[in-house]
Write a structure and sequence with these properties.
Largest sheet of chain B: 3 strands, antiparallel
Oligomer: heterodimer
Number of helices of chain A: 4
Biased composition (Polar residues) (chain B): 189-203
CATH class of chain A: Alpha Beta
InterPro entries (chain B): CCDC84-like
Largest sheet of chain A: 7 strands, mixed
Radius of gyration of chain B: 49 Å
CATH superfamily of chain A: Glutaredoxin
CATH topology of chain A: Glutaredoxin
Helix content of chain A: 25-40%
Organism (chain B): Physeter macrocephalus (Sperm whale)
Order of helices and strands of chain A: EHEHEHEEEEHE
Strand content of chain B: 5-15%
Helix content of chain B: 55-70%
Protein name (chain B): Centrosomal AT-AC splicing factor isoform X5
Distance between the termini of chain B: 138 Å
Pfam family, one (chain B): CCDC84
Amino acid sequence: MSFLLPKLSSKKEVDQAIKSTAEKVLVLRFGRDEDPVCLQLDDILSKTSSDLSKMATIYLVDVDQTPVYTHYFDISYIPSTVFFFNGQHMKVDYGSPDHTKFVGSFKTKQDFIDLIEVIYRGAMRGKLIVQSPIDPKNIPKYDLLYQDI
Amino acid sequence: MAPPERCSVCRQTFFCGRGHVYSRKHQRQLKVALERLLPQVEAARKALRAAQVERYVPDHERCCWCLCCGCEVRKHLSHGNLTVLHGGLLEHLASPEHKKATNRFWWENKGEFQMKEKFLISPQDYARFKKSMVKSLDSYEEKEDEVIKEMAAQIREVEHSRQEMVRSVLEPQTVPDPEEGSSAPGSWKGTNSQVASTSQQPSYVDLPPAPELDWMETGQPLTFIGHQDTPGIGNIHSGATPPWMVQDEDCSSGNQQIGPSYEEFLKEKEKQKLKKLPPDRVGANFDHNSSTSAGWLPSFGRVWNNGRRWQSRHQFKTEAAARNKQQLHKKKS
């Protein structure tokens, strides 16, 4: 599944992707290709990527190859998905403590599609943070550790 | 003219005296009223021979209007849990008061003589009815007993099968062999599914909700790849420079190249499309080729905030000012 989606393997490539994706939501999946939850997420991403091609571009990033980004986004659990629009990082309130990224996999393809649509519409209206349309029951739970708190 | 009299059958007042009764209209009304009453009486007469006993139902409280006596009569006779169908009506029809009232009714309204017999029930008939009633009561009781015994047998059976299953599961568990242990859950599942299908629903309903929760709770726990905190370098939460904003040496050399004109043409086409997009969307005026200093920070971190964006920006500016001051001091000293 991960071979169907384009991959970015260095910081420069990620920079390039962020700066050059125009007028579409940029989805960066940070994780490892072999991890089971990442595989689930990649499956959903690849199946929806063609339907969402006009609204979003999806890339996979390996956390081991881009330590700068792993550190910047404070990625402690994989997979984590980060959203951008026109070079601007989009925050989403999922009901979880961290609004900067989506941790874990989506339960259904429709959840992901709804989320992308909400982000796209919010970005078109000039909003930097949007409310997630996904049912809080379907958001994976995890413990957020920030500097050993 | 005769004094005004009210005819209860026609439900009207007449001034004809005794003549009214012989009129066509009156006879017609009388016939209709008797036709209304007749089916009830016929049903009761049928029940004479074979009395039916049934379990009490609120429907058995219904009453029937006896035209001759001019009163409401309970149709079915009920006592406690049981009802005898048409018992009440039969009792009334057999009573001497009803006979008297029927006779008077016929004399006053000049009904047909043959019809009168149909609305009466002789005492002998009533006695017969009583006998059959007793018999049917007994048989009903027997039936009830049978049903209760059947239910008891069923319950005993189910209980027995449950005991068996519990016993069969306990026995393999006494052998502390790991292989046996793995096969026991398998047999448990097999017997469990059997019992679940035959016995009650509650135990079966518990199974589907549990797997649902599993998916979200742990199912497959997320891989933890370590705390990403090195104290010196900031991250998104602390509002550090995003890595794609950091100017690298490689980027600047790339900008100096002159791109091919075909690509520029394509870009112009894209820009035409852009004009259709809403002008106040995020990053509409983002110059993709611009070089930015570290001072431009689109996001001010602050995940844990619940105020407005300008508040976090304001906070960040004050902190940045304080930081700059500190740096200046350090440089001086």
